[in-house]
Write a structure and sequence with these properties.
Blueprint (H helix, E strand, L loop, with lengths): L4 E5 L2 E5 L4 H18 L5 E3 L6 E2 L5 E2 L3 E5 L5 E7 L6 H13 L4 E6 L4 E8 L2 E9 L3 E4 L2 E7 H5 L7
Parallel strand pairs: 7-8
Antiparallel strand pairs: 1-2, 3-6, 4-5, 6-7, 8-9, 9-10, 11-12
């Protein structure tokens, strides 16, 4: 069962509603696949869903999925699952914060359209690298064993395996 939570964005607290059932299904599925791919990585740690990550005194975010470096605790991959009734904080505000902090990787996962936007950071900010849908594969070169089809990520029925 999901619960409400709070984030600190631009120095102001923001109460967030408890995510819905489909959101949690997608989040659980994503965590399962990423957890399997980072099991042997000593330098990377997968945080629990919506764990608080303090980026600065002005920003404390709770990504649906967060990978941090083991030594420094620095966030290097965040995944935000967009909620239809509460998408602005994720798609606008937090995306800008991630860009300012030069987050290396960001996945914006949108169950409204069953797609995933993949962003990489470069000297100009976050760059949209791909929009994935259908039978396309979500992969990450920094996680060589991670591979998940978008269809499987958003499937209504439980995935096989």
């Amino acid at each position: 069962m999901s619960v409400a939570y709070a984030e600190m964005l631009n120095g102001a607290p923001l109460a967030r509603r408890a995510p819905g059932a489909r959101h949690e299904l997608v989040c659980g599925r994503l965590h399962k696949w990423v957890r399997a791919s980072v099991a042997d990585f000593a330098g990377t740690r997968l945080l629990a869903p919506r764990s608080e990550v303090k980026l600065s005194w002005r920003h404390a975010v709770c990504p649906d999925l967060a990978l941090v470096t083991t030594v420094t605790g620095k966030l290097w991959l965040a995944a935000e699952i967009v909620s239809a009734d509460d998408h602005q904080p994720d798609t606008v505000v937090k995306k800008q914060i991630y860009e300012e902090m030069r987050l290396p990787r960001l996945w914006m996962i949108d169950p409204r359209y069953d797609n995933v936007e993949v962003y990489h950071s470069n000297e100009y900010g976050l760059i949209l690298k791909n929009i994935l849908a259908g039978h396309e594969l979500l992969t990450e070169k920094l996680l060589p064993e991670f591979q998940l089809t978008i269809t499987e990520l958003f499937a209504v029925e439980p995935p096989r395996g």
